[in-house]
């Protein structure tokens, strides 16, 4: 059974069953008439732009009966109306009609459906064509049964796989949202996109991140109270409705939407179709994902809305996870700094050593283009590389003492499960490229991050205590001395990276360690 749901227009919310009537003049064809006044069809009495007999829904194939049949084909035909008939914003004369298609007649927008579902206007409809995602478990079950044994092409699964990778790799929430916004916009072919924040108290709308087709996503990172953020060119009505009701919306023709402000966002920006979905609600703000298109002959569809809705769900979860991770990281930061302070209290000459090593290691890691996760581990390991010296009476310069403080480090850090992954980096940072280190590991077996910490550690020691009088070497002299051990004590590639980082002026740039506020 087919239904027509009025999702926008004077009679918004009405659901009408499509009862086909015989057409004696045409064999095997049934019709359902839509117009201003059609007693046996759909009467749109309140829409002054609808002709008396405006459009016909036709069923062709098999023997014509008044009910829907499997195998019959459905068409929509304009009956020489004054204002025309449109399918998904395209004006038609006659065209095949698929379930889920959006039909516009005058100022009325209808959805052609094969199940009545809930009334389209259960909530006051917004604009020309507004769709809300509703789950239909029975339809999904039948759909899956039909597809059994067939190859299924879906944009949702590969897109969500990419989203998951972005959320896993990127530790910076702004960069994560930039990439997700760009991916979402490109996947549904949007012209513009925004991650929008709506202040719960003032209802002020801003966008910290925006996307415009053909350009890179723009992020406004605030650094103080006087900083401003991008003012989003969006429909405030849609944003507020989506945020406050937590419901995703699709508007296929914003230009016909009487409720949207045409003065700026709709007319000047040439916005035609809009998808808006909720991301997350914090204590002070609602966050939504907003995409629009200004193409006159095309609009977003239900599939696009479902895809963007799935992206938003994953993104919201990722934001919550990042927030929880930041809080956990702050606790971890305080703990690490407390441990570092304890190490340095033992020997005043070591004051600042661990943080300098972490800075040098960070510079090398960036030169090597390590991932955010790798850089995070590298910084932690560099800060804690001497943690085992807390219980020693010497500084562990001899190999036997080095092995002792590495073993002590394992015991100290073992109870901290959050530091489990960095323990191997610390354990093997005294290994040598020629295999003569504490554990006599071969060069190829030594973890890359351990090699970086090793070079950063020796560099700081040479600059602090190197030279004949032990007064420390200049940076260039220290690096020259390290270069002499390339391939012996140190990995050649890491030494080349050290030289390149120094020559480019990046080795001593002030670096922000993990957990520090932006």
Give the helix/strand layout.
Layout: E1 3-8, E2 15-17, E3 21-22, E4 29-35, E5 42-43, E6 55-60, E7 73-78, E8 85-87, E9 90-92, E10 94-96, E11 102-105, E12 108-113, E13 130-131, H1 137-147, H2 156-169, H3 173-187, E14 192-199, E15 205-212, E16 218-219, H4 236-245, E17 249-251, H5 262-266, E18 273-281, E19 285-293, H6 302-346, H7 353-367, H8 372-383, H9 399-413, H10 423-427, H11 448-465, H12 475-483, H13 492-503
Parallel strand pairs: 4-5
Antiparallel strand pairs: 1-2, 1-12, 3-4, 4-6, 6-7, 7-10, 8-9, 8-11, 11-12, 13-17, 14-15, 14-19, 15-16, 17-18, 18-19
Strand order of the largest sheet: 13-17-18-19-14-15-16
Oligomer: single chain
Total number of beta strands: 19
Percentage of residues in strands: 15-25%
Count of distinct structural domains: 3
Helix content: 25-40%
Mean pLDDT: 78
Structural class by helix and strand composition? alpha+beta
List keywords for this structure.
518 residues; alpha+beta; Tumour Suppressor Smad4; Beta-Lactamase; Hypothetical protein af1432; 3 domains; 6-stranded antiparallel beta sheet; 13 helices
């Amino acid at each position: 059974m087919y239904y027509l749901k009025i999702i926008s227009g004077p009679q918004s919310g009405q659901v009408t069953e499509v009862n086909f009537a015989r057409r004696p003049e045409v064999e095997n064809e049934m019709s359902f008439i839509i117009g201003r006044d059609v007693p046996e069809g759909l009467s749109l009495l309140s829409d002054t732009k609808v002709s008396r007999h405006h459009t016909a829904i036709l069923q062709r194939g098999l023997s014509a009966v008044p009910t829907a049949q499997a195998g019959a084909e459905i068409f929509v035909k304009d009956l020489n109306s004054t204002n025309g008939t449109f399918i998904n914003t395209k004006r038609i004369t006659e065209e095949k009609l698929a379930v889920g298609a959006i039909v516009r007649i005058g100022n009325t927008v209808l959805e052609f459906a094969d199940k009545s579902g809930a009334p389209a206007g259960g909530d006051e409809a917004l604009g020309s064509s507004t769709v809300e995602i509703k789950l239909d478990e029975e339809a999904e079950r039948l759909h899956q049964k039909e597809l059994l044994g067939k190859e299924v092409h879906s944009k949702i699964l590969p897109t969500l796989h990419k989203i998951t990778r972005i959320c896993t790799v990127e530790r910076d929430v702004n960069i994560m949202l930039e990439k997700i916004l760009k991916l979402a916009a490109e996947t549904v072919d949007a012209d513009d996109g925004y991650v929008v924040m709506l202040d719960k108290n003032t209802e002020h709308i801003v966008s910290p991140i925006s996307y415009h087709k053909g350009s890179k996503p723009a992020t406004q990172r605030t650094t103080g109270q006087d900083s401003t953020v991008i003012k989003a060119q969006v429909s405030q009505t849609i944003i507020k409705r989506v945020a406050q009701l937590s419901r995703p919306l699709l508007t296929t023709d914003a230009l016909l939407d009487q409720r949207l402000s045409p003065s700026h966002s709709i007319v000047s920006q040439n916005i035609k179709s809009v998808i808006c979905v909720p991301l997350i609600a914090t204590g002070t703000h609602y966050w939504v994902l907003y995409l629009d298109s200004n193409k006159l002959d095309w609009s977003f569809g239900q599939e696009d809305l479902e895809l963007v809705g799935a992206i938003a769900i994953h993104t919201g979860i990722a934001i919550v996870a990042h927030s929880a991770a930041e809080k956990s990281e702050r606790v971890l930061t305080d703990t690490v700094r407390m441990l570092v302070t304890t190490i340095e209290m033992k020997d005043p000459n070591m004051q600042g050593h661990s943080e300098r090593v972490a800075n040098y290691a960070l510079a090398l890691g960036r030169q090597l283009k390590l991932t955010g996760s790798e850089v995070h581990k590298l910084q932690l390991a560099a800060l804690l590389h001497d943690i085992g010296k807390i219980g020693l009476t010497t500084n562990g310069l001899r190999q036997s003492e080095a092995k002792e403080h590495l073993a002590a480090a394992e015991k100290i850090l073992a109870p901290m499960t959050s530091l489990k992954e960095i323990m191997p980096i610390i354990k093997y940072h005294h290994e040598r490229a020629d295999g003569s280190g504490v554990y006599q590991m071969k060069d190829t077996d030594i973890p890359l991050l351990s090699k970086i910490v090793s070079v950063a550690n020796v560099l700081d020691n040479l600059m602090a205590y190197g030279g004949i009088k032990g007064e420390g070497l200049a940076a260039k002299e220290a690096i020259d001395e390290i270069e002499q051990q390339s391939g012996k004590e140190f990995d050649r590639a890491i030494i080349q990276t050290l030289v390149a980082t120094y020559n480019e002026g990046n080795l001593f740039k002030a670096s922000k360690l993990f957990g520090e506020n932006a």
